[in-house]
Amino acid sequence: MKQPNRCTKEWVVTKLGNISKIVESNAMYAIDCEMVLCEDGADAVVQVCVVDHNFEVRIDEFVKTNKAITDYRTHVTGISAKDLDGATCTLADIQKSLKKLLKHGAILIGHGLNYYLEALKFDHARVIDTSLIFESQSLDAPATRNSSEAILPQVQSSSCNDVREKCAQHKYLDGARNTMKLVLAKIERGFGDVIDLSCRDVLKVEMAKLLLHTVPVEVSMEELKKIFPKDFEVDIKLTSRTKGRKYFAYAVFKDPQAAHQAFERIEGNKGEGPQADKHASTPERPRFAKKVPKDSSGRPQKLILLQLSTGVTASFFVCNMFSYNIIDQSVQPNKRSLQMEESITEAKKQKVDMGEEAINKSESITEAKEQKVDMGKEAIGKLESTTEAKKQVDIGKEAINKSKRRKRSRKKQKEVDMCKEAVNKSESTTEAKKQVDMGKEAVNKSKSRKKQEVVMCKEAINKLKTRTGSNQRNYHQEEIERLKRQLCQKDDEIHSLQKIVSVLIGNQGFPPHVGQ
């Protein structure tokens, strides 16, 4: 069988995460799905039910499919087109809900679980398939939720009894809840102990059935009854298992002997050689094939060719799940069970021995781990001391760097102060030079004025000399005196200016010849 590609975007794969959390997790959820047939021949999920270990409903949704549905299999699923009209939940929504529910290592339980997971495109590592943990002749048939109904009366625990009445109110949840009951019963009894499914009560229920498998959906239950002799009372019970456009059903009789006799009286071949059909093919009596092999478990079966009222000939198989020898031996002690118990006891002893050996190994491993822990602690102590020393070295280096930075800062500050002082001196020297230049300019102006005035006085004197008369001489004499006084006054001013210039030159440290 070709394995599905789980690397596509449509598939969801759960991650286990932390191993310690997974080991401690004991959460369990049971799932049951209803399928319909699409026009491309594939099955599609249209209803998903999930319950927890307390039988509380965690998911109960109709699923909207994007494919055209050709067969709702209403006689098996109980679902019609009307049920899906208001469905808004998609397959992606179911995958998201399951992923959230199964995180931290929860266990997913189902009967024929692989069939459900492929249809849901969902991959989960921690699973329990009840079709595998309950192995008996009656359960070697294709997986079906009806199997749990036959087993549960023998394995029913007190924890399951209180929900029987509740489950009856929601029949579409029975598959998930019965699957959870089976696992809880297995846990209660222990996986080392066999739940005896060959006891008389279970055999009476199971051996009174014949399995009709790969029946075309065109064959009705009334037409199925026609393959059995009319003197047998038979009731057709449908199972939830389907395969494309084929379904499975049980023909239930009043007791195992009636079921065995009805199988023997069905005219046809049981896989033991060719057999001719002595009767003509009519709607009331089928035509049988020639040689038919036994099923995969070696049980006798017959291939039925049934002509329907529509004129179409349908083919399917009828399987006798128990041989007549088993029916005769069902009232006797089961030697196989005793042998199985002995083998289980021996297996338990081996497991105990293996457990003791594992404990010893675990103790040695624990001791080695403790030594590693001590070595680790010692290494951590050394590392911490080394780290502390490194911290001290780093602190010292930081202090040295800070001191260097402070010294550089002080040196730079001194240089800045010296620059400022030099600038200030330069500014004061410049100002003094300006003042000296102004003084020189004033002296030069004063000298030039004095010369002009002297020239003017000389000219005036010469003019006066040329004048005659005593009055003129007196006037001229007074004018000369006045001019002399003015000259003396100017000389005093020039002398004062020269003193100021000398003082300024002396204060600024200029050489004496600068003021000359």
Automatic annotation (TrEMBL):
Compositionally biased intervals (Basic residues): 402-413
Main location: nucleus
Subcellular location: Nucleus
Stretches the record annotates as Disordered: 267-297, 397-450
Gene Ontology CC annotation, any one: nucleus
SUPFAM superfamilies according to UniProt: Ribonuclease H-like, RNA-binding domain, RBD
GO MF terms held by the record: exonuclease activity; nucleic acid binding
Keywords: Hydrolase, Nuclease, Nucleus
InterPro entries: RBD_domain_sf, REXO1/3/4-like, Ribonucl_H, RNaseH-like_sf, RNaseH_sf
Domain Exonuclease: 27-192
Compositional bias ranges of the Basic and acidic residues kind: 414-444
Xref: PANTHER family: FI18136P1-RELATED, RNA EXONUCLEASE REXO1 / RECO3 FAMILY MEMBER-RELATED
Family: Belongs to the REXO1/REXO3 family.
Protein known as: Small RNA degrading nuclease 3-like isoform X5
Organism: Nelumbo nucifera (Sacred lotus)
Lineage, broadest ranks: Eukaryota, Viridiplantae, Streptophyta, Embryophyta, Tracheophyta
